[in-house]
Write a structure and sequence with these properties.
Distance between the termini of chain A: 29 Å
Shape of chain A: flat
CATH class of chain A: Mainly Alpha
Number of helices of chain A: 12
Order of helices and strands of chain B: EEEHEEHEHHHEHEHEEHH
Number of strands of chain A: 0
CATH superfamily of chain B: P-loop containing nucleotide triphosphate hydrolases
CATH topology of chain A: MetI-like fold
Strand order of the largest sheet of chain B: 6-7-8-3-9-10
Number of domains of chain B: 1
CATH architecture of chain A: Orthogonal Bundle
Helix content of chain A: over 70%
Largest sheet of chain A: none
CATH class of chain B: Alpha Beta
Radius of gyration of chain A: 23 Å
CATH architecture of chain B: 3-Layer(aba) Sandwich
CATH superfamily of chain A: MetI-like
Shape of chain B: globular
Number of strands of chain B: 10
CATH topology of chain B: Rossmann fold
Oligomer: heterodimer
């Protein structure tokens, strides 16, 4: 163990791999010392494990329940620890399966929106001039729309469903990343190390991809992680309005909408998915804060 | 004319931003012989660094001609140009990418220019600047200022250029390291027959390194001196005389009460 540690923390790495792993290990050491961030990471890891092993963890079928015997059972009933909803379905099982949808939304939005924002922002910042003007005015136009309203319009046009909700959220999520990437690029593009790379005959694409993007990455990762809570809430909001996941899919926002009709008498039907959304959003926020502390270049030295 | 490695005639550089125009270099001419070390001195803002940046295409030239080995230099610069001309920047803390290891700093120019035997060349370049292969996979933040500047020199040398432009290569380093880096540059020039164009505000550095020098003021070339002129403090113009006096350090009498 101690030899691995010494190898990772070596001042004179002997290979590319050792240098990379050593750098990653130092970041991890910084991250590990932050208790709240570790708590956030724990929540996210539990969410991922729940999503992966849903069929083995869920005690009941999430989609069909017995209307005669298990309808609207309160929490802590034997075998139905979080109660059942008006269709007789076990809420715990639905929450566990719902984590798959939540995670898919978050991951797909991050995969779609982040590269788009990075590409537009770094190009605008690096080339400047009219490229900058055109790209950033376009970004401003998208940014001018309220997020949820624009997503609503897209989903209404494309038809309700979780896939369209993901596309709609991704389309509204990239402008802040583009602005952030542009701002970072502006501080980088006139630096000597970029000039030195130009003096080696590097193309603009190479400079942007290999030199500018890696320096923007850390602040973008932090921003995306902090946005994930918002993405989950938007997806839940669309589900709540009936424009996201469609019944009988166990999407958390849709579950809250289902329980809204009898909130006073059967409070747990809406409350349990609400708690789940709250905990996962909190987890992503804490994780994002912790990542900012270790990754943000402005925080260091 | 062909016995000049680098020839600069009536170079003009104008920076335009909106309606503002800054005429940073106004008709500067000089010739550098092969294997020569040529200095450019002047106070801050005299346009001496801009001349270097214009030669390698980082600053916009608005007039004049540049010739390398007798041939005109195309603008924008072609990748082949950078095999002949490289530059070392002033601040070694700003000229290395903070997230790239020394290995990737040195292997990138080789990849761009399509060189073979990359591992050998990187090891050789590190040896040449006195760092050794133990430094190969370190990050810049694990290096001191002098070590970083050696990496910057290695990066400039790895493409085997004939001309190296040195933009105050030692002004960001402390005195003991300055001498080390200057000696390294001297040795490399002698070994490889390199041609240097060196910008500095430090006349002691210039007189140590350069055979001839150009004095610049407000974007204009004031006069050209030889090393002997500099050491004997022979100057034709008032400005150079003032510069020479200033470099000797101020005494009480120079400062009016």
């Amino acid at each position: 163990m101690s030899t691995t540690r010494a190898w990772l923390l070596s001042d004179a790495p002997l290979s590319r791999r050792q240098a990379k792993l050593g750098q990653a290990y130092r970041t991890w050491l910084g991250f590990r010392s932050n208790g709240l961030a570790m708590f956030g990471l724990l929540i996210v890891v539990v969410l991922v494990l729940l999503a992966l092993f849903a069929p083995w963890l869920a005690p009941h079928d999430p989609l069909t329940g017995d209307l005669n015997t298990t309808r609207l059972l309160p929490p802590l009933t034997e075998g139905y620890w979080l109660g059942t909803d008006d269709q007789g379905r076990d809420i715990l099982s639905r929450l566990i399966y719902g984590s798959r949808i939540t995670l898919a939304v978050v991951a797909l939005v991050a995969i779609l929106a982040t590269p788009l924002g990075l590409l537009i922002g770094t190009s605008a910042g690096y080339f400047g001039g009219w490229v900058d003007t055109v790209l950033m005015r376009f970004t401003d136009i998208v940014l001018a729309f309220p997020k949820l309203i624009l997503a609503l319009a897209f989903v209404a046009a494309l038809g309700p469903g979780i896939e369209n909700a993901i596309i709609a959220i991704a389309i509204t999520a990239w402008p802040p990343y583009a602005r952030l990437a542009r701002a970072e690029t502006l501080t980088i593009r006139n630096s000597d190390f970029i000039a030195a790379t130009k003096l080696q005959g590097a193309s603009s694409a190479r400079i942007i991809w290999k030199h500018v993007v890696p320096l923007c990455m850390s602040s973008i990762i932090v921003r995306v992680t902090l946005d994930m809570a918002g993405i989950i809430l938007t997806a839940a909001g669309l589900g709540f309005l009936g424009l996201g996941a469609q019944p009988p899919q166990p999407e958390w926002g849709a579950m809250i909408a289902g329980g809204r009709n009898f909130l006073i008498d059967y409070w747990w039907v809406a409350t349990m998915p609400g708690i789940a959304i709250f905990v996962v959003s909190l987890g992503f926020n804490l994780l994002g804060d912790g990542l900012r502390d270790v990754l943000d270049p402005k925080g260091q030295k | 004319m062909n016995d000049h490695m680098l020839s600069v005639q009536n170079l003009e550089v104008t920076f335009v931003s909106g309606l503002d125009q800054v005429h940073a270099v106004r008709g500067v001419s000089f010739d550098v012989k092969p294997g020569e070390s040529y200095g450019i001195v002047g106070e801050s803002g005299s346009g001496k660094s801009t001349v270097l940046r214009a030669i390698c295409g980082l600053a916009p030239t608005s007039g004049g001609t540049l010739r390398l080995n007798g041939a005109g230099i195309a603008s924008p610069r072609r990748p082949e140009f950078y095999r002949q001309v490289q530059m070392v920047f002033q601040d070694p803390y700003a000229s290395l990418h903070p997230r790239h290891t020394i290995d990737s700093v040195l292997s990138e120019p080789l990849a761009i220019q399509g060189f073979d035997r990359r591992d050998e060349r990187i090891a050789q370049a590190l040896e040449d600047v006195g760092l050794g292969v133990g430094f190969r996979f370190r990050y810049p933040h694990q290096l001191s200022g002098g070590q970083r500047q050696r990496v910057a020199v290695a990066r400039a040398l790895i493409l085997e250029p004939q001309v190296i432009l040195l933009d105050e290569p030692t002004s960001a380093l402390d005195a003991s390291i300055q001498a080390e880096v200057l000696n390294l540059l001297e040795r490399l020039r002698a070994e490889r027959g390199l041609t240097y164009v060196m910008v500095s505000h430090d006349l002691a550095v210039i007189s140590h390194m350069c055979e001839r020098l150009l004095v610049m003021e407000h974007g204009l070339a004031v006069e050209e001196l030889t090393r002997e002129d500099l050491r004997a403090r022979r100057s034709k113009t008032d400005y150079t005389a003032k510069l020479l006096r200033a470099s000797a350090g101020y005494t009480k009498e120079d400062i009016p009460a």
